[in-house]
Design goal:
Blueprint: E1 6-12, H1 34-48, E2 64-66, E3 70-74, E4 81-86, H2 110-118, E5 123-125, H3 128-133, H4 135-138, E6 151-152, E7 167-176, E8 186-195, E9 200-208, H5 213-229, E10 242-247, E11 261-264, H6 273-280, E12 293-296, E13 312-315, E14 320-322, E15 332-334, E16 337-339, E17 354-356, E18 359-363
Helix pairs in contact: 1-5
GO molecular function, one term: RNA binding
Domain Csm4 C-terminal: 284-363
InterPro entries: Csm4, Csm4_C
Length: 364
């Protein structure tokens, strides 16, 4: 199954800091959510003279959707790249008293044992991801040498050194110095992430809903622009710069099993209450629906840095929903954009500030 039209690798040349809900800089994410990168693309469009293509209403779509930014690593001496995705939540039904190392008890499904092991995983690679979704495929995977690892690869032939140091973190001190000299210098700390040069980084997927060649050109120009400007926090001191590489995404081996579910690869905000109601409505005793909500807020970019966006809750990556149509077994995009422009500010902001909640869904 081809789940996207384009895959973009970002090789970072400077440290990366991605802000989170904490008010300080000590903690940082090393992935970037789809809504934040979409906002960065729109901001780049406004700087490059493509402002007329930015949606001006919730009904207007930009013609494409993206996944969130996830880690990848190139195996040393090997042309193969390992792309990681968030482990699907996929409603685990395991006896809480069952511990690792215990033998399978009567009535326990072998799949339950694998699920218990996989609870330790955070990111799984491109080949392991569909096997988690398909019960019949997971029993063929040897997970014994992946326990305790943050990144899981289902290929036994991959040395564990490949999984080590994909990204490393460092906390560095910074200082705020008073311009007038009347205030004390304030020391604070920032967590920065470093990827292996030319070997690891972040990638994301692009799904084009509009087959417009000029749209692709605009997106690629925006990505090159962001590579020079940087993404994330502290771009003014050189953080977040990267070199992009545009690739063809590998196929994902998902059988046409029609289990009736779908998993999202980016943050999702439902288009309507009816859509949400359908995707979450199922018999609780048999349902595999599982999701997590994430609060999204943050500060506006220049020239409105002192204003904060209104907060909105969205479904995090890897959530599992009931598919809108059981007969539809192809990749789709769903969701809506939300205007989070702050209210009652002076002077008022003359344009919408979008939190984009439309992303790619993989059916299974």
């Amino acid at each position: 199954m081809q789940i996207a039209h384009q895959l973009v690798k970002l090789y970072f040349t400077t440290p990366l800091h991605i802000g989170n809900e904490r008010s300080d800089y000590v903690s940082s994410n090393f992935i970037m959510h789809s809504d934040a990168f979409m906002a960065a693309i729109f901001h780049a469009w406004s700087r490059l003279g493509y402002g007329k293509h930015i949606p001006d209403s919730p009904e207007k779509l930009p013609g494409f959707a993206i996944s969130s930014l996830f880690p990848f690593v190139n195996a040393p001496g090997n042309s193969k790249s390992y792309y990681f995705l968030p482990k699907p939540r996929w409603g685990y039904k395991i006896d809480d008293d069952f511990k690792d190392g215990q033998e399978k008890q009567p009535g326990q499904n072998q799949y339950d044992i694998y699920r218990k092991q996989l609870k330790k995983a955070v990111y799984v690679d491109w080949d392991l991801f569909p096997k988690i979704l398909q019960e019949s495929k997971l029993s063929s995977v040897n997970l014994s040498n992946r326990l305790g690892s943050y990144f899981w690869i289902g290929d036994d032939g991959v040395p564990l050194e490949t999984l080590q140091n994909i990204v490393r973190s460092q906390i560095v001190p910074r200082a705020t110095v008073s311009r007038s000299g009347t205030e004390d210098t304030v020391i604070y700390y920032v967590e920065r992430h470093y990827f292996k040069p030319n070997q690891s980084g972040l990638y994301f997927l692009i799904y084009y809903e509009d087959e417009d060649k000029q749209l692709r050109e605009r997106i690629e120009k925006a990505i090159y622009f962001l590579g020079q400007e940087g993404i994330g926090t502290d771009r003014n001191v050189g953080n977040g710069k990267f070199k992009p590489e545009f690739c063809e995404p590998p196929e994902m081996q998902i059988d046409d099993s029609r289990q009736g579910y779908a998993v999202n690869l980016g943050l999702y905000h439902p288009s309507s209450f009816g859509e949400l109601q359908h995707m979450l409505h199922e018999n609780r005793t048999t349902s595999q629906i599982s999701y997590e909500l994430i609060r999204r807020s943050g500060w506006l970019s220049e020239p409105y840095q002192t204003w904060r966006k209104r907060a909105v809750y969205m479904f995090s990556e890897g959530s599992v929903f009931k598919r809108l149509s059981d007969s539809d077994n192809k990749v789709i995009t769903m969701g809506s954009n939300v205007d989070v422009k702050p209210q009652n500010v002076h002077p008022p902001i003359p344009h919408p500030v979008w939190r984009f909640g439309r992303t790619i869904f993989i059916p299974f």
